[in-house]
Each structure stands twice: as C-alpha cells, then as structure tokens.
Amino acid sequence: MSNRLNGKNALITGAAQGMGAAVAEEYARHGARVCLGDINIDGCNDVVERIRAAGGEAIAVKLDVTSRADHAAAVAATVKAFGGINVTVQNAGINKPLMFLDITEENWRNIMDVNALGVLLGMQEAARQMIKQGRENGPYKIINVGSILSRQAFDDVVPYSCSKHAVLAMINGGAKALVGHNITVNGYAPGVVRTELWEQLDKDLVAIGKFEKEGESMDKLAETMILMKRYSYPEDIIGTAVFLAASPDSDYMTGQLLMIDGGMVIQ
C-alpha cells in the first residue's frame, strides 16, 4: 500500500463493479478512505469487503444518481464516516445502443438522466460540502468520467455521445464556477474497456445488427479503430484516476479531460 492518497476521503459513484470498483480499490490501496455509491448496494458491499480485507477503509451506500436526495445522503454518509470529503469521482453510467432513426424518448431520457444529470447532481452536492469545509482545507478534486465519445460520436450511440459531451461541458463549466473555492474539476476519458458494461454493450450491438456474433465487437474495434491495436482493462485507466485525485500531482490543472483510449480518438 502506498501513501499517495493518505488522509483523503473519496466518494465514487457507480462503484459496484467495473471501472468504479477498480478505482475504489486503487484509491484504498493508495491510502484513501472511500465511500462506494451505487444502486447495486450488494455489489458495493462485496467491493467494501475486498478493500477491508486488504487493510483499507471503505463504506457502501445505496445511490441512485438521478436522485439529488441520494447524492446528498451519500455525501453525508462520507462525512459521518470519515470526517469530510476531498475527492469525488462521478463514474456511474449506462448505455443502450440504437441506430439513429430508432432512438426513442425513453432511451434518450434514461441515458441522459444517469450520465448527464447524475453527474451534475453529484458535482453540486459534493461541491457544497467542500465549500462548507473551507478553501483552506483544499485543494478538493471533482473528477468526472467522460469517454472517447466526449470528443466524437457514432451513429449507434448518439444519446450516449450526447451525455458524454455534456460531461465535458460540466468539466469546463464546473472548473470556472468552483475555482474560487479551491476546487478543481477534471476528468478522464476511456475508449474501449473490458468491463461488465462492455459485455452488455457487446450483446446489444449484436442485437441491432452492428456485429454478427457476441464477443467480436472489442476485437473488431481494436483492429480497426484503436491505434495501439488492443482494447483496455480497468488497470490501464486507474493510474490516471489516482493522478487526478492526488495532491500536489494535479493541483495546477482544472477544466481538462484526459484521453486514455490507446489512440482511438486520433486513429
């Protein structure tokens, strides 16, 4: 266990599995106390058990990111357990691909509510607590998870692309709004990451006819669209999440979205 995040208290959304769970475990490995929030509380509890077994400190809260009350409760739980909040990672996200002419109002609203509104609410509630703690106790770090689709769009995931463009806008706007409170706002943008989210996405892409059989989407994308010719795993991403949380490593940085996509956006 290292000490890069010793004394830091972090709240991570969408932490029951995949990238969120990996970031929570990595933060704890570097000394942070972590609150894991997810609508899947059982999954969060499993991750908490792993963190505690490794000698870290963690709690779990049930968190529907579309609910402001749930965000406020998660912040309050973090403060009660650890004494304050220094870092928040807005990681929760969903996707359901549909071809452009097949996009429905329900599809649009579900994705935008979780991926865009959920980020806004999480940023606001965490920032209010950080401001209450006082700028002299900062710097505080708000970290939003974007995507390669924060920079471009594909015809089968337009609502998701729009939601991730919104995340970039909130990084830029939030940085300007909160800089006076010693709060930085940054993010990281993965490309194709092998997680439970992608396993489901792979099935959905087959269902809408983008690929012929399950299991081929990641290999095809790696071959044709990723400069480094391989997809990523959470282990490829978590170091950047630590960098953005750790002081003073990223203190003189705000309003930025770091691409961790194997060169996909320039391919």
Oligomer: single chain
Instruction: Specify the structural class.
Output: alpha/beta
- Number-wise, the strands total 7
Residues in helices, as a percent range: 40-55%
Q: Give, in order, the helices and strands.
A: EHEHEHEHEHEHHHE
Q: What number is the mean pLDDT?
A: 95
Tell me the number of helical segments per DSSP (H or I, 4 or more residues long): 8
Largest beta-sheet details = 7 strands, parallel
Radius of gyration using CA atoms only: 18 Å
Give unreliable regions as ranges.
none
Main β-sheet, spatial strand arrangement: 3-2-1-4-5-6-7
What characteristic shape results from the CA principal axes?
Answer: globular
Tell me the β content: 5-15%
Distance between the termini: 37 Å
Topology:
Layout: E1 9-13, H1 18-29, E2 33-38, H2 41-53, E3 57-62, H3 68-82, E4 87-90, H4 105-133, E5 140-145, H5 158-178, E6 183-190, H6 196-207, H7 217-225, H8 234-245, E7 257-260
Helix pairs in contact: 1-2, 1-8, 3-4, 4-5
Q: How does this model look, in words?
A:
The mean pLDDT is 95. The chain has helices spanning 18-29, 41-53, 68-82, 105-133, 158-178, 196-207, 217-225, 234-245; strands at 9-13, 33-38, 57-62, 87-90, 140-145, 183-190, 257-260. It has 267 residues and is an alpha/beta fold. The chain is globular. The longest helix is centred in the middle third of the chain and has 29 residues, at 105-133. The protein has eight helices and seven strands. The chain has a seven-stranded parallel sheet with strand order 3-2-1-4-5-6-7, sandwiched between helices. Helix 5 links the parallel strand 5 (140-145) and strand 6.
